[in-house]
Amino acid sequence: MQTRVTLLDGSLFTCTVEKRARGLQLFEKVCEHVNLLERDYFALSFRDADNNKNWLDPAKEMKKQVRGVPWNFSFNVKFYPPDPAQLSEDITRYFLCLQLRQDIVSGRLPCSFATHTVLGSYTVQSELGDYDPDECASDYISELCFAPNQTKEMEEKIMELHKTYRGMSPAEAEMHFLENVKKLSMYGVDLHHAKDSEGVDIMLGVCSSGLLVYRDRLRINRFSWPKILKISYKRNNFYIKIRPGEFDQFESTIGFKLLNHRAAKRLWKVCVEHHSFFRLVSPEEPPKKFLTLGSKFRYSGRTQIQSRRASAQISRPAPHFPRCISKRNMLSRSLDGVFDWSSGSRTTPSLIGSPAITASPKANGGTHTGRACYYRSTAARCSTTAVLLQYCSVIGHSSECFISFSLWRSAAF
């Protein structure tokens, strides 16, 4: 079977796999293609016939998971590391940066104006290198995209900060970017639509620390993994059993209603995987009995502890890799699609024949600003070819703690 995988830099990777191939076989091919060793934080996702986002299970045959749609996948970060500095290789942190930039520009990761300017300035340093007044015009970042609500004032502040980073390497800029972005309240939160026991619309967010509950754009509750005794689902209901509090005698069960049975199961699986990855020393063994009650699903990958141990054993020289540059109003092709704010729905973007642009490295670890200032470049200068998609302008957010419910309504389960 012919498969197509959209990578984080917008390029397409195509390969042929057997019909009975498991998800792990395709995932390993993609990781080898991008030269990634710290693989446990990443996964492949796909859209089903109802346009719902699903994670490809590496332990199951692909044909049993992808039904009725082409075998098109997206390479994404699945588990956002709480401390990116503990990643061993620069290339891993770079891929994490690419994912987070997509999250920010799409509005999935809300930022304040001040945070946008700081993160944008490190993005410019990573992609363009040192500021050079002889080669960069007064609006040299006007074609770069940093935020859904990007303004001229924001760009001026970003340029002001960027000019102070002389001598900072791309890897250092990406580390500063990650150190700032990990503090955002919505960093690494996987959101799911739900209703509470009173039928009020809420959002359930799954992250490294536990389960979060949002209503009216504000977080109203948090259940850490140690506090949760059991997670389960039945039909379209999702349940969590909570340990008794300091003044409680008995355990309590809290229920939420999701759109349908499949949505409840997706949320349950995401919770199982996040709890296993971030909390367990090693993954649980699947039940061996032929007749068992409930789902046999178990997280089958390595846990974060196992991944860190494996990363500590990496001994290869730091790999060299090109860093891509994304134009404003253009977004790398993604299976997530583009959110159309006028219609309130998520649409598949139209293709345009514009290649991705990469910055060539300087000897000192920076980048050649003259080549990177791509507003002067032509397609012939591009060192890689990838299809970019038109990106719709979207509204912004005034504070990290406020989340666009318009975006939430557009998100597919």
Automatic annotation (TrEMBL):
GO terms for molecular function: actin binding. Keywords: Actin-binding, Cytoplasm, Cytoskeleton, Phosphoprotein. GO terms for cellular component: cytoskeleton; plasma membrane. Pfam families: FA, FERM_C, FERM_M, FERM_N. It comes from the Eukaryota. One of its GO terms (biological process) is actomyosin structure organization. It is found in: Cytoplasm, Cytoskeleton. This is Erythrocyte membrane protein band 4.1 like 3. Residues 1-282 form the FERM domain. InterPro entries: Band_41_domain, Ez/rad/moesin-like, FA, FERM/acyl-CoA-bd_prot_sf, FERM_2, FERM_central, FERM_CS, FERM_domain. SMART domains: B41, FA, FERM_C.
